[in-house]
Amino acid sequence: MPAPEASPVVILGAGGHAKVVIEILRDSRPDLRLVGLLDADPSPRSLLGAEVIGDDSRLPGLRREGVAKAFVAVGDNRRREALGVNLQEMGFELVKAVSPRACVSPSARLGSGVAVMAGAVVGAEAELLDLVIVNTGALVDHECRLARAAHVAPGCALAGRVSVGERALLGVGVSVVPGASIGADAVVGAGSCVISDIPAGVVAKGLPARPGEALPRGDLA
Ligand SMILES: CC(C)(COP(=O)(O)OP(=O)(O)OC[C@H]1O[C@@H](n2cnc3c(N)ncnc32)[C@H](O)[C@@H]1OP(=O)(O)O)[C@@H](O)C(=O)NCCC(=O)NCCS
Hints:
Helix content is about 15%, strand content about 30%. It is an alpha/beta fold. The chain has 2 domains: about 5-95, Rossmann fold; about 100-215, UDP N-Acetylglucosamine Acyltransferase, domain 1, CATH 2.160.10. The longest helix is centred in the N-terminal third of the chain and has 13 residues, at about 15-30. The site of coenzyme A has 15 residues, from strand 24.
């Protein structure tokens, strides 16, 4: 039987995170054919052999031409969420990018547009809602729940039943004890250790992580 034709997919974003996603999709999704990248800077250029073909204004045209799948490769949580919701409203399906070198439990649940990078481990009955990033080498153990557009940065270690709120960022190498809860839009500083709940919308850092000032809006990634 001939192989089914690959579906066209467009990636939003053309930075370092997009490079990782391009390689994951090439490695793991023979069912997809990358038509190009859209970026706020639409100047034509190549990223690992993939071409920047314009900015978001191309989306309606691409949709009309039959491109029905997309991936948001943008690190900033708020922006990734906004772009993802917009794409879904336009009728795009958000594909997943799960590295073949990640280890994801068969009982884990992954939403649309989720990225799981190489070396990451996602445990039994973990739940990753739409647009979550589990970055390189991060450990997300059993029954963790990562809400929409949360980002667990490289090398984090989340014990079982940790809850991470919408758009929260856990910086590089953060550790979280079992069952702790991190509120929506919180940022936990790189290398911090969370031993108790972190409220929504604060920056918490240190050993142990202590909530500090309310978060000024913007990308602290
Ligand atoms: C916590 C963080 C958000 C603070 O950013 P910021 O508000 O710009 O902080 P500053 O660099 O101005 O530092 C403010 C103070 O916090 C301290 N600090 C900053 N980051 C810290 C951290 N991760 N752990 C402990 N202390 C930290 C600084 O030493 C400084 O202390 P001082 O006032 O005594 O001199 C940032 O340092 C961080 O860790 N971001 C995570 C980045 C990341 O891992 N992204 C993932 C990309 S994939």
